[in-house]
Amino acid sequence: MQKSRISKQVCIFLSWVSFAFPQIEFDVHWTPYVTYYLSMVDINTGESNMPIFLSELSRESGAPDSIGVYIEFEIIIDSDALGVDHETLVKVETTQPLILSAPIHLSNMDLNLTTDQVFDNQGNPVALHLDITEQLDMEQAEQMFSAIVQTGQLPDGVYTFRVVATSENGEQIVKEDILNISNPATLQLVSPGGILSDTTINEVYTSYPVLQWESDPCNYINPMTGESGCEYFIRVAEFKSQEHSSIDQAIESVTRLPLDQSLGFEPVGFGITTFQYPTDGGDLEPGKVYVWQVRKDLTTTSGTEQLLSDIMSFKVKDFTSSESDDTGAEDTTPAGIVLRSLIGDDLADRIFGAGGKAAGMVANGNITLNGETIDVSVAQALLSMGIPTEDEDGNETYRPMEIISVEVSE
Hints:
By secondary structure, this protein is an alpha+beta fold. The strands form seven sheets. Strands 13, 15, 16, 17, 19, 20 and 21 form a seven-stranded mixed sheet that branches. Strands 3, 4, 5, 9, 10 and 11 form a six-stranded antiparallel sheet that branches. A three-stranded antiparallel sheet has the order 1-2-6, with no helix packed on it. Helix 5 (334-343) packs across helix 6 and helix 5 runs parallel beside helix 7 (376-385). It has three domains: 21-181, Immunoglobulin-like; 184-318, Immunoglobulins (Immunoglobulin-like), CATH 2.60.40; 319-410, no CATH class. It has helices at 2-20, 142-151, 247-251, 322-326, 334-343, 345-352, 376-385, and strands at 24-30, 53-59, 67-79, 84-94, 98-100, 104-107, 117-119, 125-127, 130-135, 157-167, 172-181, 187-191, 203-204, 210-215, 231-239, 255-257, 266-270, 274-276, 289-300, 303-308, 312-316, 367-369, 372-374, 387-390, 396-399.
């Protein structure tokens, strides 16, 4: 009798191990977007018009020839601004298991009430029985839906996209994509430049200025290159007073950048907010006024959207003009230009101009930063871009240089 009880216990244990052994594989790939529109999912039918995820459901090696698998797809919202605390926007799930024999490819676009079957990799139809088992109560989230109606977009917040595969033996595989959605709306030029009517205070001292702007960060990763952030483009054109009546007309005319007029804008990269005018773009000519604009491309569930900045103008300093000669600005060396731009024209004229204490002197090119010698190109970059600093979120920004004191030695 004792031996019989031991054998029964062993059989039960082996049966439990077999029950818990993995039988399915569920690989899920999420599609990256910057902005999500409500139209991507109908919360009443589950219908989607854009791929949010793509997946492959298959049997593990050694699993039974046929396995029943339940699938569910859920979108969960957590938004303090809207007063929505971890609530389900919509949840679609199968009411009867899919019969899995050969691999099946599924996406969110398959999971809607109008779909009654999918096909496996061998072309066999697989019955699909779906229902909306949970959705956001519109009366409880009136503020949220009001915001959605106005913009069409899912408002800022934390969104959890979850897809779950559960086999009939209890094995469950959960895949999630948690996004902190912030719909980008800001794109502001910083430097160089300003309004067209006063380019005298918007002069640059180089034909290759560093252009800087500010914008909202993008929670986007390019699936092809792995680069993060939105993609930016830039456009630079000369303002000709005899041809252009406004900066808008100038920016739409023949461009200096890009040189290829068919492009419209020059691509500058993903997630960056500074760009140095390239040497292969051709010198920006001294004494001339230029206008520039930045474009930001947003990858949304409704396609690519473009956000344009305002337009700013700047003038390239002409040190050979009679106006410059009258102020005693003979030093046109790179070091001299950096020195003048650091201390400003008024102070430079008083020191180096006619009657100044350092009249006739020129910069020797010896530049130090915190006691260490640096090249003039480093000084030019710091002057154009500013001093790099990081905020509490690790985002790098640039602040203008400040002159504390000036010391002149022979």
